[in-house]
Q: What sequence folds into this?
């Protein structure tokens, strides 16, 4: 059984109707009205968030912000403990990022505040950046990671590591470009 799904199932059992209503209200900008109305339980809502890429074992910042907003520190503590323990499968096979994710991980760990300049160099629009920033308001690194992943989705097969390296060099981030090349 997936430990992350077990955790979400546990959360679902511990959330009251009022908690669920509050979370649904907070998700209005992320989930369409019809889908929100169809969510009859927290389990349904978590499934929708996972489908839309807002929630996964490695992406819990949105869930953290929801639990903080509804003042469920007990569940927030469980979530943080789960993350600190490595999500139940620290060195599980298949947990390594795939070849497409490795440059994103390396870049996100080394770029910092210059991420917007880099994204503009990659022809990522300000509107796209604003949307990502609104979805991850308190986490700069997550904003950058999501921007890179969104750029990768938009470009599809045309998203090349060489384009990332060129953009890094154009932004005078040569050290990061060298690390990516390795």
A:
């Amino acid at each position: 059984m997936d430990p992350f799904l077990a955790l979400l199932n546990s959360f679902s059992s511990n959330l009251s109707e009022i908690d669920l209503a509050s979370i649904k209200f907070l998700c209005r900008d992320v989930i369409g009205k019809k889908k929100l109305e169809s969510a009859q339980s927290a389990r349904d809502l978590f499934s929708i968030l996972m489908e839309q890429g807002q929630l996964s074992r490695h992406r819990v910042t949105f869930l953290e912000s929801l639990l903080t907003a509804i003042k469920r520190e007990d569940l927030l503590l469980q979530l943080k403990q789960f993350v600190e323990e490595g999500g139940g499968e620290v060195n599980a096979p298949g947990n390594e990022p795939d070849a497409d994710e490795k440059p994103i991980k390396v870049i996100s760990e080394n770029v910092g505040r210059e991420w917007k300049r880099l994204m503009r160099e990659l022809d990522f629009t300000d509107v796209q950046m604003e949307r990502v920033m609104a979805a991850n308001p308190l986490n700069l690194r997550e904003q950058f990671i999501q921007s890179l992943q969104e750029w990768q989705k938009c470009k599809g097969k045309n998203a090349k590591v060489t384009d990332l390296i060129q953009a890094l060099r154009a932004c005078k981030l040569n050290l990061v470009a060298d690390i990516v090349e390795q």
Q: What stands out?
A: Residues 140-155 form the longest helix (16 residues).
